[in-house]
Amino acid sequence: MIRESLDLQIRPENEQQVHRAIMLGAVAYVALLTLPFVPGAEIGIAMLTAFGAAIAPLIYVATVLAMLLAFAVGRLIPVGVLARLLSLLRLHRAANLVARTAPLSQEQRVALLLDGAPPRLIALALRHRYIALALSVNVPGNAIVGGGGGIMMLAGMSGLFAPLPTALAVMIAVSPVPIAVMLIGV
Predict the structure, then answer these.
(1) Would you call 79 exposed, middle or buried from its count of C-beta atoms within 10 A (0-12, 13-18, 19+)?
(2) pLDDT tens, 103-145?
(3) 3-state DSSP call for residue 94?
(4) Taking CA atoms, which of 45, 47, 82, 124 is between 20 and 30 Å from 100?
(5) N- to C-terminal Cα separation, the chain
(6) Other Cβ atoms closer than 10 A to 77
(7) CA-closest candidate to residue 181, choices 45, 42, 30
């Protein structure tokens, strides 16, 4: 019904405008999804609803790009800046943990976190962190804890995730909805 009410018909005289609108929408989608606390999945679903199954591959690529961009931004944020920000927010224990883990390697950080992890669920999530990352990106309502962009930015800041396995986890995590739309058609 939404697609019919939008009356999106591609004709020779409006093909360029529709193409421009789709590209502008995709760029805006990437930019918004990269930001923390933005419910990006809903924007992607709205675009899929408006333009149908033909746009599903573009939405998939844009989602992966946005997630990896947020991850890269997180990796670029200096640890000292993060520790100072946490201190300003009066999160002193978190600031101290960030400062303590800053000089450590990825394996040493995991070992330190595992050493102080009381519940077995946290230890399990740390050991299988790429699966946990993929699940957290897909959990409904994840915008409350930062959304996909915020989660990926935190993953980048943590120093616990290597780029290549993270990219693979993201590509798998965001694929169900576009694949379903392409197979079922909307």
Answers:
(1) middle
(2) 777 778 777 776 766 677 666 767 788 998 999 888 877 777 7
(3) helix
(4) 124
(5) 11
(6) 13
(7) 45
